[in-house]
Amino acid sequence: MNKIARLFAFFFVVTLLGAGCAKHDSNQAAIELEKAFQPNAATATPATAGTPTTPQTEVNKSINQAITAIRAKSYDDAFYTLRSVQTAPNITVDQYSAIEAARLAVEREVANKAAAGDPVALKALRAIQQSH
C-alpha cells in the first residue's frame, strides 16, 4: 500500500473515531480554544514593557498562532502548533482538552478536504504525514 493510501486510511479512521465524539468543525474548535485560554481577570496582570515572558505567555502566543492558522485554513501550521503546545507543562485539563479537540477537528477537516481533492489540504496532509 503506498504512502498516500495509508495516509488516507489513517485519517479516515481518525475521522470515523472523531465522528462519535462531540462534532466540532475547526472554526468551533478555535472558539473553544479562545474560551479555554482567556485570561482570568482576577489573576491576570497587565503586560508592561520589560516584563519577562513566562511559559504561560508563550503558551498563549502559540494558542493565538494556532487560532490564526485554523481560521486561515493553514492546516499544517495549526496542526504543528497545537501538537507542540499540548506538551506545555502548566496547562489545565480543560485547556488540554480544548487543544486536543481543536487538533482533531483540524485533522478531520484536512482529511475531508483532501479526500475531496482540495490541493491545499493535500499539501498539508503530505506535510503532516512526513512529521510522523
The tally of beta strands, per DSSP, is: 0
Low-confidence stretches: 19-23, 41-49
Structural class: mainly alpha
Enumerate how many helices there are, as a single number: 6
Q: Could you describe the largest sheet, including whether it forms a barrel?
A: none
Proportion of strand residues: under 5%
Report the order of strands and helices: HHHHHH
Tell me the Rg in angstroms.
16 Å
The CA-CA distance between the termini, in Å, is: 17 Å
Per the principal axes of the C-alpha atoms, what is the gross shape? elongated
- Whole-number count of domains: 1
What is the mean pLDDT? 80
Helix content: 55-70%
Features:
132 residues
What does this structure look like?
By secondary structure, the protein is mainly α. The protein has one domain. It is built from 6 helices and no strands.
Summarize the structure.
The protein has 6 helices and no strands.
Write the layout of secondary structure elements.
Elements: H1 3-20, H2 26-36, H3 55-71, H4 75-85, H5 93-115, H6 119-130
Helix pairs in contact: 1-5, 2-3, 2-5, 3-4, 4-5, 4-6, 5-6
